[in-house]
Specification:
With 299 residues, the chain is of the alpha/beta class. Helices cover 32% and strands 22% of the residues. The chain has two domains: 165 residues, P-loop containing nucleotide triphosphate hydrolases (Rossmann fold, 3-Layer(aba) Sandwich), CATH 3.40.50; 104 residues, 2-Layer Sandwich (GMP Synthetase, Chain A, domain 3), CATH 3.30.300. It has nine helices and nine strands.
């Protein structure tokens, strides 16, 4: 007798910097979502599709939830995260093993107000100096909401990731696959190219500057043995342009070099990458600019 095929959507939700994108990459078994050591690297809702013989798991990566909206982009990212829990089969709330913080209250409230089943993922347990601190945190978390399960994991080290996946599968409905077996994401190649370039802005620029940058793909052309990509890096202050370019263009070259390596690994192709830097004044606080740059979308 054949086992029932299961398929469902799982939204990963949480405040910035709890490791949601790293978790999705670990669950998928390959890199999809960009990551950095800084909070709020993820700005878009991204689907990652995991195909197994008897199930298909569709993970929804979301921006970190902000308690305070300092600029229009923060409000937009919160709306993106909140709408990403509508119509899914499971919400996976992610917190850090360091414990609950006031910043966790907003996503927790969304979970409690939603009828959808939920699990709690306690991530970064590898950073606990005392493993004995985990049990009190689990007991405290049990009183927070009616979670179907609480799973402590380390996404970077792979600890308990197999247990987490089995638990998720058990909570998925019996359903045929929602996507073809060879599809890995709902996002276009142009979108992914912009993301991998933006990742290098977070990795190589100063503390605050990456949050003022965006990437637009101007050209994306496949030839027989090479993929040619032209991209524009947007900044919102005149002085930021020079910082991104660097002395004699060295920083921009470094950003381009590292981004090209990531792009070649993702597309499995030789990549020729051209980058330009342009000023778009105060784009992070403009609804019109955010829409043009793809941050406001119909979900």
């Amino acid at each position: 007798m054949n086992e029932v095929f299961r398929c469902g959507f799982v939204t990963l939700l949480g405040r910035p910097n709890v490791g949601k994108s790293t978790l999705i990459n670990a669950l998928l078994g390959h890199k999809l979502s960009i990551t950095s050591r800084r909070p709020q690297t993820t700005r878009h809702r991204i689907l990652g599709i995991k195909n197994n013989p008897d199930n298909q798991l569709i993970f929804v990566d979301t921006p970190g939830v902000h308690a305070v909206h300092k600029r229009e982009i923060n409000a937009v990212l919160n709306r993106t995260a909140q709408t990403s829990i509508e119509g899914v089969d499971l919400i996976a709330l992610v917190i850090s093993a360091k414990g609950w913080t006031p910043a966790d209250e907003v996503p927790l409230k969304w979970v409690k107000d939603h009828a959808c089943p939920s699990v709690l993922i306690i991530n970064k347990i590898d950073r606990l100096s005392r493993k004995s601190a985990l049990l009190p945190l689990i007991e405290e978390s049990n009183a927070m909401a009616e979670f179907a399960n609480i799973i402590p994991v380390s996404a970077t080290r792979g600890t308990n990731m197999d247990i987490l996946e089995k638990q998720i599968i058990s909570l998925m409905p019996a359903s045929p696959a929602g996507f073809p077996p060879d599809q890995l994401t709902d996002r276009s190649e142009r979108f992914m190219a912009a993301e991998y370039i933006r990742e290098q802005l977070f990795n190589q620029l100063g503390q605050e500057l990456p949050y003022s940058t965006a990437v637009q793909i101007d050209s994306f052309e496949r030839e027989k043995k090479i993929l040619r990509i032209g991209a524009v890096i947007m900044v919102e202050r005149p002085g930021q342009k020079g910082i991104v370019i660097g002395k004699q263009g060295e920083r921009l070259k470094q950003i381009g070099s590292q981004a090209r390596r990531s792009l070649e690994a993702y597309f499995d192709s030789k990549v020729y990458l051209e980058l330009w830097v342009k000023l778009k004044q105060d784009w992070t606080d403009s609804a019109q600019a955010l829409r043009l740059l793809g941050y406001i979308e119909d979900i």
